[in-house]
Amino acid sequence: MTVGQAVSVHPSPLRLLTTADLPEVDLRAATLDGDLYAVGDAWAEIATVDDPRIRASSVTVLFERHVVAARDTAAWIWMASGTAPWRHHGIVPPDARHRDRTSRVAISEMVIADDEVVDLAGIRVTTPCRTALDIARSSTWTPLDERRVRHLIRAHAISAPQLRRLIDRHARLPNRVRAWARLRSVVDPLGP
């Protein structure tokens, strides 16, 4: 290389190890040795930063390309949970053909707008705002659910008007009234 020559630097692709690369016992031994750490069902080199892109990469073996990571899985990807859920959640359009590859993946058919999904490392994930809404719509509302929603709202600067617009544009979304009450209590605990 000569002086003044331009150098093109591209970030290296996210590379995680799985049991397709090495036996699980070897991966766990490397974790104990401090060389790797677990990321969901995969392992990363210790120098790799734990962030949404690396977490999204870890679910590539579970989801087909058209599946959107949602709910608990999306919350974990967005760093709102410390550990990956045992059962991952995904969304597909109502007309999509899909098959569950494993009992650890629950797929729901649902209409979702393009602006409610982002691509992280080749995996489609619901936005933090949509993830908060989906968690708040669930039949249960545990302290863990509230903490995850609170984290999503704070970390991604989600406002009450943003949440309200999202709910309003989905007039037929199940449990939207319950979700709004829960989200409102997190965003503005003192009420109107």
Any descriptors?
AbiEi_C; AbiEi antitoxin C-terminal domain-containing protein; 2 domains; disordered N terminus; 35% helix; 192 residues; two-stranded antiparallel sheet; five-stranded mixed sheet; alpha/beta
Q: Can you describe this structure?
A:
By secondary structure, the protein is of the alpha/beta class. The protein has two domains: 19-48, no CATH class; 49-185, no CATH class. The protein contains seven helices and seven strands, in the order H-E-E-H-E-H-E-E-E-E-H-H-H-H. It has helices at 24-32, 52-58, 71-77, 128-137, 143-155, 160-168, 176-187, and strands at 36-39, 42-45, 68-70, 88-92, 105-109, 117-120, 123-126. The strands form two sheets. A five-stranded mixed β-sheet has the order 5-4-3-7-6. Strands 1-2 form a two-stranded antiparallel sheet. The longest helix is centred in the C-terminal third of the chain and has 13 residues, at 143-155. The protein starts with 23 loop residues before the first helix and ends in a 5-residue tail after the last helix.
* Continuous helix count: 7
Q: Write down the overall mean pLDDT.
A: 87
In the residues, how many domains can be counted? Answer: 2
Element pattern in H and E: HEEHEHEEEEHHHH
Residue share in helix: 25-40%
Structural class: alpha/beta
Categorize the overall geometry. Answer: globular
Low-confidence stretches are 1-13
Q: What characterizes the major β-sheet?
A: 5 strands, mixed
CA-based gyration radius: 19 Å
* Termini separation: 64 Å
The protein's oligomeric status is: single chain
InterPro entries: AbiEi_C
Domain AbiEi antitoxin C-terminal: 65-184
Protein name: AbiEi antitoxin C-terminal domain-containing protein
